[in-house]
Design a protein that fits this description.
Oligomer: single chain
Strand content: 5-15%
Number of strands: 4
Strand order of the largest sheet: 1-2-4-3
Number of helices: 11
Distance between the termini: 46 Å
Length: 250
């Protein structure tokens, strides 16, 4: 196993950062260059990353993302946006219409490109010994991100990424059995429930050890609760703000 794969497989989300250690401009530049070197749809490069270091802005964005203090406490916050504004300029320059924003395909393409770029940024940062945690909470109040960071039409915040030097490293959270998520030739629905039951036991034990017995919840209960009511704040904000930014899909 080479060093790159070791880094990827050793991933953990960090939420405690050393306040005495900064992340240099050179490090951030390397991380962004790695993100932008990633594959993207039709070479449209539908991603823009905004770096935020200003303490007041980070404080506002931290609250908007669901009071996630690590957004405020880490030295660097990166906002990953799907970006069709440049495509709009290309359309205007060449006398065509930006038809894709009329279809859900734009959101799928933009989100996929952001995900690929974000993954590359994570690997780059962790290869430097930095700690990271992605911030999906930016979609709880996306209009605040749009307004504060001056996002033009056809640009929408998909995820944030906090970067800093770890003060503490958490234990690595177990993943689903590989048999559940990696299959050959066809999807095997019959194995999923048994594997989920096994994973519930694994996560319950992990949570109990992590919290000294205060929380022994399992995976399926948390996922079921979140996709029942927990996602409400995202649902109420995401679609209206995306359409405000010019994506007019039905």
């Amino acid at each position: 196993m080479n060093e790159t794969i070791k880094i990827i497989k050793n991933h953990r989300s960090v939420r405690e950062f050393d306040p005495e250690k900064d992340v240099s401009d050179a490090q951030v530049k390397e991380i962004i260059e790695a993100a932008m070197a990633a594959p993207n749809w039709v070479n449209g490069q539908q991603v823009t990353v905004i770096e935020v270091r200003d303490p007041k802005k980070k404080s506002t964005l931290s609250e908007a993302a669901g009071n996630q203090r690590w957004v405020r406490e880490a030295p660097v916050f990166l906002l990953f946006c799907m970006d069709f504004y440049r495509a709009k300029l290309a359309a205007e320059k060449n006398g065509t219409e930006l038809q894709i924003v009329e279809d859900l395909e734009a959101v799928i393409v933009g989100s996929t490109d952001v995900g690929i770029a974000l993954g590359s940024a994570v690997i780059a940062a962790e290869s430097m010994g930095l700690g990271i945690v992605p911030i999906g909470g930016v979609r709880k109040n996306p209009k605040i991100f749009v307004d504060l960071l001056n996002l033009p039409e056809y640009v929408y915040p998909i995820s944030g990424l906090v970067i800093g030097h770890p003060r503490t490293l958490p234990g690595q959270k177990p993943r689903l059995p590989l048999k559940a998520t990696y299959q050959k030739e066809k999807y095997d629905a019959e194995v999923q429930l048994d594997l989920m039951n096994q994973y519930d036991e694994t996560i319950s034990t992990y949570m109990s050890e992590r919290t000294s017995g205060q929380d022994s919840s399992d995976w399926s209960s948390k996922i079921a609760q979140f996709y029942d009511k927990g996602f409400d704040q995202y649902a109420k904000s995401t679609s209206p703000t995306i359409k405000h930014q010019g994506f007019r899909y039905k």
